[in-house]
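Input sequence (478 aa), recorded before submission:
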Amino acid sequence: MTHTTTASRKRVPRPTSQQARERHTARGRAARAEVPRASHAEFTAGPDRADPLSLLEGQGLARLPELLPIRYGRMASSAFAFFRGAALPMASDLARTPRSGLTVQACGDAHLANFGVFASPERHLVFDINDFDETLPGPWEWDVKRLATSLEIAGRANGYPSKTREGIVLAAVAAYRRAMRDFAGMDALHVWYAHTDMARIEAVISGSLRTRARKTLAKNVAKAQTKDNLGALGRFAAVHDGVARLNAEPPLVVPLRDLLADPVEAAAMEDSIRQLLRAYADTLEPERRVLLDRYHLVDIARKVVGVGSVGTRSWMLLLLEDGDNPLFLQAKEAGPSVLEAFVGESEFHNSGQRVVVGQRLMQAVSDIFLGWVRASGLDGKERDFYLRQLRDWKGSADIETMLPDGMLAYGEVCGLTLARAHARSGDRIAMAAYLGGGPSFDVAVREFAESYADQNERDHQSLVDAIASGRITAEAGV
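Predicted structure, token format:
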């Protein structure tokens, strides 16, 4: 028998951290050579561009038809509202633009209004992306361009001069670039642990705000902390004959008892939702299932949410502990991401799981009740849902009243936050090398944002015209 000593075994040298860093850096520089940063300025609609209204109507085929007029009415109210609901048309347009080839867990809908504050499990107020309905692995540039464009559109809506809007967009993209370069210098654990709490946000933003704007920021932070389960109980429910019941506010909030007049059908549906809760609980960590088990379901209502989500099935669930302490959960329908047609299908068969995994990848901290389930609806068809708390210190910026210096500071924080979310899943060193230390990428994205904001105004007008002609039915002011 031949014995091989440790010393005589062939060893394969492992790359040092410096060698690995150089390899990732080379990857980023190679991508830059193949897809120059200046090329990201490109946007041309072209004669073969997909009709945005047809794309929106196609989405509507899988939604509740009685709610679609609310969706179109909300989108028609302003160019910014249209942009919020038009993630699919923009994804279709972005698919025709240059890509660096570097992939991250993308948000898919990273516009200005999809950032905000909420409570961490440790009861700290944190700032992060807060909407992941469209999340999917995809090009990081698409998220940056959607954020930049939303700033340009919001600046126009607020009447900011062109030069001011330019500075706001450039600052946000530069903040993303600088943050990514900072994250490239950290190890993976430091990136994963990084988060932005409101103390840091206030310190960063307040220095660039006027006195009135600082007071508004403090007021909004305080207001967010009142948006908890007890606050939701006072807002959405009332006690009738000693029993807590959700208030009816049709068409935005419709209790199950009003959706199904037949008591037998309503009881069967309620039992189905109780089964949904039990199945959803299996996707939670064991200790969180113990917590959930302390509550029992007392009422259910369909709730209209957002702009782009209107028409999807969304349920508000009121649970109580010992008949008193409330827990509000939201069960929101999850369909395929708008990105899937352009970057490939999700690896997850349940779209709710796609949302939950993407959210956990991108957010520094997530809701302790975040989970998913597949369940049958009122029509008997199976659909995917994800669940989370309806309100947990949630708050967002009042974009319409922002002064220019406030929006510039807020855009920078959003850019930094988006970079941190991307650095958790992407090749942060390659991305930093691609972005570089100069403003080439910033300038290119600003040019893109200006061109796409022009296109968004044309698309918004097309919707307004389609409503006026009767092609699309809309309900304003809802």
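Checked by second reader. The first strand starts at residue 103 and ends at 106.
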